[in-house]
Design a protein that fits this description.
The protein is an all-alpha fold. It folds into 2 domains: 4-76; 89-177, no CATH class. Helices cover 66% and strands 0% of the residues. It is built from 9 helices and no strands.
């Protein structure tokens, strides 16, 4: 490795750290993850703190970029790849749909944003209504990132408009659930 910031910390590689982070975010217990890797909690906690410090001190952003890549590729991790939290059949189907259906992915982005705007925990709302944890959602988002990075303006605008339209629909739903918006009865 040419970059010393990429060297493993206490035998915890950056891929390990990203996979641990992804699995924790998707609902796998820390104990199960650490047992699978054969790492003691104290070792992981120190390695975690040091990986965060490395990301902060890396002016090239190589560590952070690779962390994001590895986070998205968690299913390829040799020990943690197949370790998953229990997910409903609907949740699994929705995750697969998010991976292949850009419109569905954008809809859920809009729904999550609208939920946050109306005081809900958007990630929790997605979990409860679609069976997709925050970690799974973010892993799919990281998979879409390189595919969408070089899109032309028209394509990007098309999907952004779609997302904003879905966000507005969900916002109207949340407003109705809460008895309407504060200014709904004001006419100009």
């Amino acid at each position: 490795m040419s970059n010393p910031l990429l060297e493993p910390i206490h035998q915890v590689s950056l891929f390990d750290y990203a996979a641990i982070s992804a699995k924790l975010a998707s609902g796998v217990s820390e104990d199960e993850i650490l047992q699978t890797l054969g790492i003691e909690k104290a070792i992981f906690e120190e390695a975690s703190a040091l990986w965060i410090a490395r990301m902060q001190e890396d002016s090239t952003f190589e560590v952070t970029t690779l962390f994001g890549q590895y986070f998205a590729e968690v299913d390829n991790h040799p020990k943690l790849g197949q370790l998953n939290a229990e997910i409903s059949e609907d949740g699994l189907a929705n995750i697969e749909k998010m991976k292949t259906d850009r419109y569905f992915f954008e809809e859920l982005n809009g729904a999550r944003q609208a939920a946050y705007a109306y005081g809900y925990d958007g990630a929790q709302w997605i979990q409860e209504n679609f069976g997709i944890s925050l970690g799974e959602f973010q892993a799919v988002a990281m998979q879409w990132m390189p595919l969408t990075a070089d899109e032309g303006y028209e394509t990007l605008r098309h999907y952004l408009d779609y997302r904003e339209a879905r966000e507005k629909e969900y916002a109207e739903k949340f407003a109705a659930e809460q008895g309407g918006n504060v200014a709904d009865d004001i006419e100009f």
